[in-house]
Amino acid sequence: MDIDAFLAEVLSSNEDWHVSTMDTVTVIDPIIAKDNPDFDPYEEYQASEF
Q: What's residue 1's pLDDT?
């Protein structure tokens, strides 16, 4: 599955999503971002212990 197909699938679903790439670019569901304005992707990334 290429990235475009993956993003289309993710964006078309109604599930919460949070995608981090290897270079730490983070895509956050706008609904989560709206509900949690203090959400820090980098903090989340560190907490995930990748």
A: 61
